Amino acid sequence: MGTRRTFLSASIAAAAVASTGIPAGAEQLGDRGPGKPVKPQPPDADLRAILREIDHQRIEAIVRKLASFGTRHTLSSQDDPVRGIGAARDWIFAEMGKWANENMKVELQSYIQQPAPPRIPEAVRITNVMATLRGSTSPDRIYVVSGHYDSRCTDPNDFTKDSPGANDDASGVAVSMELARIMSKRRPEATIVFAAVAGEEQGLHGARHMATQYKTAGADIQAMFTNDIVGSSTADDGTRDPRTVRLFAEGVPTAETPAEANIRRSVGGENDSTSRQLSRFVRSVAVNDATGMNVRVIYRRDRYLRGGDHIPFLEQAYPAARFTETNENYAHQHQDVRVENGVQFGDLPEFCDFPYIARVAKVNAATLWSLANGPGTPKGVRINTSRLTNETDLLWQRGTEPDLAGYEVVWRETTANDWTHYIDVGDVTKAVIDLSKDNVFFGVRAYDKAGHRSPVAFPTPQS
Ligand SMILES: [Zn+2]
C-alpha cells in the first residue's frame, strides 16, 4: 500500500516529467546537467510506408500453411513432399525465393548436426533458410531477424505426432517472411538478413550454426533479434494485452571475458551491455503511433527454464535479444494436440491473434529499418582515465557511412534505466564534457544527415 509520502514523491516526479520532459530517474540531477532531453526517433516517410504494407492476412496464411505440414520436428522427414520439416523448408525457400532479386539473395544454409543426446540421438541435416538484403552503402554491417520453423509436441523427441507449432514458432517465421517480402522492394543502407532456422527445440542448433558461420567469417553483426512465440495476446486466464510485446535483453554479457568482467565491476556496466543498448534503441524507434505497440523490456536473457535463438549470437558476443508475447499460455505450447476435460491443448492456429503478430512485425520493421538506415554503432569508444579530473574525456573512431553527420554524447544518472540527456558534439572523434564520469553514465551515438540515430556505445576506460 502506498503511503502519502510515496504518493507525493511520485506526483512530484510525474510533474517533473511533465514540465521538463526529462524522465523520472534523472531526478537526482534534475535538468541541471548539460544537454537536452533525449527524445524518441519518429518514423520517417519510408518507414511509415513499410509499416502500412504489413498485412495480417498474409501473416495468417503463412502461419496456417506452416501448421499444415503436420509436424515440423527437426528429426521428421526431410523428403516427404507434404508432411515434415523438409516440406516446410522447401515451401519457405520457394516463398522467399519469389521475392529474391539482384539485391536480395535467398539461400539454404545446411550442415550435418552430429549426435547431441538426448535431443539429437543420431546425426541429422539441419537447414536454415536465409534471405540476405544487401545494404547499398554499408553492406558489411549486418542486422539479423529470425524465427524458428521447427516444432515439437509433448515429448521433445517425438517426430511423428502432430506438432502444428502455430505460435511456437510459425508466428516468428511469419514475421521474418513478411518483412522480407516488403523490404525486398527497397534498399537499406546496411544489410538485413531475414531468417527461418531449424533445430531450435533440439538445442538451438540452426541458430548456433548461423552465428558460428558469421563469427568465422568475421561478420559485423550489429544486432540480432529472434521472434519466438509472438502469436497470441491472450493469457491463460483469458486476459488480453494486444498492444505489448516483451523484449528480453541480458545485462551481464554471456560472452564476457574475465578482463571485461573486471572492468564492469569497477565502472558499474552491468546495465550497459550491447543488448541493453539495443533494447533502449528498440523503444526509441518502435514505440509510437505507427506501430501501435508498447515494448516491455525485461532485464534478463530469457524466461525461467527457457532459451532461444538469440543465445548462440550472444555466445559469439553479438548484440542480441528476444521478442516474445506478453502472456503465454502453456496449454498451447509444446503440447500434444488433444482435448482433456473439455480443454483443447496444442499449438493451433485458432489460438493465434494475427493482427497482433502483424503489430509485432511492425515493431521489428521499425527497429530493423531504423538500424539499417542509420549509422552503425560507434566503435572504439573510450573514456580517457589517464588523469583524475572532474571532467569527462571521450574518444571514438569515425564511422565510414557516406551520410554520417556527427555524434552525440548521451548521459544519465547511474540509477536511471535509460539515457536522459544528449549533447550534440558535431562531426568529431573526441569530446570533453563538463560533468564527472564518477557520477553519471556516458555513451556515444552517431547521427546521419537525415537525423537517424545509431544505438549507443558504452565506453570502456582507457588509461
Ligand atoms: Zn520456440
TrEMBL record:
InterPro entries: FN3_sf, Ig-like_fold, M28_fam, Peptidase_M28, TAT_signal. One of its GO terms (molecular function) is metalloexopeptidase activity. SUPFAM superfamilies: Fibronectin type III, Zn-dependent exopeptidases. PROSITE patterns: TAT. The keyword Transmembrane helix does not apply. Residues 128-336 form the Peptidase M28 domain. The keyword rRNA-binding does not apply. It is found in: Secreted. Keywords: Aminopeptidase, Hydrolase, Protease, Secreted. This is Aminopeptidase. One of its GO terms (biological process) is proteolysis. It comes from Kibdelosporangium aridum. Pfam families: Peptidase_M28. GO terms for cellular component: extracellular region.
